[in-house]
Structure formats: C-alpha cells, structure tokens
Write the structure tokens for this entry.
Amino acid sequence: MARGRAEETRERILAAAEECFARQGYEATGVAEICERAGISKGAFFHHFPTKQAVFLELLERWLAGLGERLAALRFEAATVPDALMQMAGMAQQVFEMARGKFPIFLEFMGQAARDPRVWQATIHPYHRYRAFFAGMIEAGIAEGSLRRVDPDVAANALLSLAIGLVLQATVDPDGADWGRVVQQSVGLLLEGMRRTDENW
C-alpha cells in the first residue's frame, strides 16, 4: 500500500511539473510551484527527486521512450524500410502536437548543456540513440535491397537532422505550414536519393 502511495505521489509530481513547464517554461518554474500544483510538501518532492532538473529529465526520457516504442513498432510492421520511414513520417503531426509543450523546454536544456557537462550528457543521449536506430534501419534497407549502398551513419544523420529541424520549425511557427504534409514530402524527397535502382546499386 505504501509503495502504491509513493508511486502515486511521484506521478503527481511529474504531471504537475509537465503542466508548469509547458505553461511557464523551465527556468520560470520553481519547486514550490510544482509542489503547490501537485498538492504535496517540498519534503515529499525531494524524497522522490533530488532537483527540478531530475524531474524534467525523467519527463523527457519518458516521452522519447514512448516515441521510440512507436517507431520500433512501425519498423516491425512495415514490409520494407522505405515503407517504414514513410509511415513514420505519417505520424509527424501527432508528434508535433506532443512535442509542442516539451520541445521549447528541451531547447532551454540545450543552452544549459553548453555550460553543464551533466546536462549535456542527458540531452545528447537521446540523439545518439535515435541516430543508431536510423542507422540500423538504413543498414537493413541496404540488406533487403530497397536502398542503395549509402553510408548508414551519414544517412541517419540526415534523417535525424531533418526531423529535428522540422519539429523546431513546427514549434516556433505552428501555423506556417501543414507540417505533417511537409514532413512526408521531405522524407519522400530524401528517400528518392537513397532508393535502389539498377543504375545506382
């Protein structure tokens, strides 16, 4: 029973922090505001998290882990790697909606990462993980014959840079374009240069 209450308190802290971060930004949010929103004492907060930074990093990790699970599921279900990449592009609008409250906070952390090695390690880890994921996909596409022989790491960097750049654009200018469609068109264009043909194999 006590463990269940502890888990419930932890979840309340995370939910309250996510709301505060999205509404006010990371820097403007204090532990006291999170505690008030969650209906807990500061002692309860620090029992579960040593710092406000730790709360944000867990929120970020949870969101990225959930996104990674969906990408992995799409890869498993798709007939070919190009099909999987286009299906991933098709879920872009949903990702943009989910990221809208989190990406600006992530950018704040990127600024801090230049000054704090601990923050740098936490923010760069997801990038490395996704780069490895996409590099593995490119290697699989080459092996199955759907993609031509390209450098998997270079291709993965291109895909990841495209994804991060478009998420950033959609965050700062949400009404500037149909970003879901832009992602599909952009990934399709990138794939055109990587698809295997008799001439480029």
User: Anything to note?
Assistant: The chain has two domains: 1-50, 56-192. The first helix runs from residue 2 to 24.
